[in-house]
Task: inverse folding
């Protein structure tokens, strides 16, 4: 295969997309998760059921939505339901296999913050807040998280826990009786972290091509555990790259056209 | 119908956001409003920046796909133009609080707010044990706005209202409110709604007004699409107090109605 050129963001999105099983019912956040979920649907997982919190079930957008409730999502959905219904019947009802979230900050137990940086009452940065994330993180059977890897994002202590991952580690998530089993992978632009089966602490288990473990450790705000045997992520295939770039190109054209 | 000090909800989840009604509240110079909305969006950024609000109840406060709501942030972080108290929820909590409001129940329950810090900062999130299974569940008080405002696609001449697409929380918001206003794209002789369509009968609505394009820059399924370009333009307009003030004085306070607003935007674009 020829040596393909690709960006770190493309590697991240493609690595995240590969985690979606064909046929999985996937509750998708906007941004990177939405791009990865749609890439999966357009490549190896055509039967994946994408749900957005606007109440669109089984949606098949041809361009990525800018907002969680773009018309494209409703037009291409199998069903569109109200907000009380999407959260109660579909999410809390336990019908979601995979919750797929982004984050501003993450800690070693894959708890995430999308609420504030700094003190809650005197924040240095006010972020959008929870949206559907706390219940997606709690009730989906498993959770994937994708975000860019740097010390500002991978922090020793969250300023605010918006959505629970493995809480304090060990069996603390189970003790808090969160219904789903929590985050199973964190996909970044440098590699893939997975929780230790016992301590639940995130561990570096796969490096994207050309990235060193030292770089990932240096980009993490706590002493990151590194697996004794680290995999190398398969580089993007030509198909994955082409489909992803076409998706972004279609999206850019569609969003520019509504001025 | 909206008075100073009221608790109001302008709903529409990305879709059918009642911008024209929101602008009219700004023009009327309403003050000390408690604003309820799951996603404050540009509409509440405008109301907050215009000084109409003293409290915000919400569950996700950003400019979707673009970034921050700068007027909301300025009010929370710096108290400009007025201090803004916030009551912060998760979407699932607000959805069930509206549903409880519609049912005239005192509170809503959900399998939610588990593993999140939100209950530490919001005394309106409590936990109860299910009397049948013992499961720990979250409880949130019902939302009962003084006034709810929504935008929909159609009304018939008797005032029955039909909407479709992403219907969000609008039906619950109307049924939970003491007074309500609906703006619509068009008024027709017959709704021709299939059975089970989302129809709000005229007798649960306070007033219906036709405002064509009244959800701009959000969208009305079947009529016009979301003006993503405007959502992106809002970022530089709203980033600084000065640019925001110039914009709102020219395009909202300086215009008579929503048609005037849109015309004024068009003129600005042509002369740019």
Result:
């Amino acid at each position: 295969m020829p040596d393909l050129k690709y960006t770190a963001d493309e590697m991240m999105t493609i690595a995240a997309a590969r985690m979606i099983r064909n046929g999985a019912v996937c509750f998708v956040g906007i941004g990177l998760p939405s791009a990865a979920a749609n890439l999966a649907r357009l490549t190896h997982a055509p039967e994946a059921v994408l749900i957005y919190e606007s109440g669109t079930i089984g949606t098949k957008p041809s361009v990525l939505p800018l907002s969680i409730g773009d018309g494209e999502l409703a037009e291409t959905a199998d069903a569109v339901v109200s907000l009380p219904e999407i959260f109660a019947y579909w999410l809390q009802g336990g019908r979601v296999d995979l919750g797929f979230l982004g984050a501003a900050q993450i800690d070693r137990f894959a708890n995430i913050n999308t609420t504030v940086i700094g003190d809650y009452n005197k924040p240095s940065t006010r972020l959008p807040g929870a949206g559907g994330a706390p219940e997606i993180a709690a009730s989906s059977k498993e959770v994937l998280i994708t975000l860019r890897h740097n010390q500002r994002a991978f922090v020793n202590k969250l300023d605010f826990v918006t959505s629970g991952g493995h809480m304090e580690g060990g069996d603390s998530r189970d003790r808090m009786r969160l219904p789903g089993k929590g985050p199973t992978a964190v996909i970044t632009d440098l590699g893939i972290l997975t929780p230790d089966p016992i301590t639940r602490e995130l561990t570096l288990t796969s490096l994207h091509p050309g990235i060193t473990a030292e770089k990932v450790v240096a980009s993490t705000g706590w002493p990151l555990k590194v697996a004794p045997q680290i995999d190398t992520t398969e580089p993007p295939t030509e198909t994955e790259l082409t489909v992803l770039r076409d998706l972004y190109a279609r999206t850019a054209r569609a969003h520019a056209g509504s001025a | 119908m909206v008075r100073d000090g009221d608790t109001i909800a302008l709903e529409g989840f990305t879709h059918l956001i009642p911008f024209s009604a929101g602008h009219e509240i700004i023009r009327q110079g309403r003050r000390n409003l408690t604003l309820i909305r799951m996603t404050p969006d540009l509409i509440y950024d405008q109301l907050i920046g215009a000084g109409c609000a003293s409290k915000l109840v919400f569950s996700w406060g950003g400019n979707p796909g673009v970034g921050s709501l700068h007027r909301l942030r300025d009010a929370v972080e710096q108290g400009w133009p007025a201090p803004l108290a916030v009551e912060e929820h998760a979407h699932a909590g607000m959805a069930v609080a509206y549903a409880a409001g519609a049912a005239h129940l005192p509170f809503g329950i959900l399998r939610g707010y588990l593993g999140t810090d939100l209950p530490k900062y919001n005394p309106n999130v409590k936990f109860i044990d299910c009397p049948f299974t013992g499961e720990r569940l979250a409880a949130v008080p019902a939302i009962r706005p003084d006034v709810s405002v929504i935008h929909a696609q159609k009304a018939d001449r008797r005032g029955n209202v039909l909407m479709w697409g992403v219907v969000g929380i609008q039906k619950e918001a109307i049924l939970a409110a003491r007074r309500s206003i609906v703006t619509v794209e068009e008024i027709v002789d017959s709704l021709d709604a299939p059975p089970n369509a989302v129809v709000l009968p005229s007798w649960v609505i306070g007033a219906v007004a036709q405002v064509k394009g009244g959800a701009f820059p959000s969208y009305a399924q079947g009529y016009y699409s979301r003006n993503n370009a405007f959502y992106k333009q809002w970022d530089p307009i709203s980033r600084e107090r000065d640019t925001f003030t110039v914009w709102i004085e020219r395009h909202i306070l300086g215009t008579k109605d929503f048609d005037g607003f849109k015309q004024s935007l068009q003129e600005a674009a042509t002369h740019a």
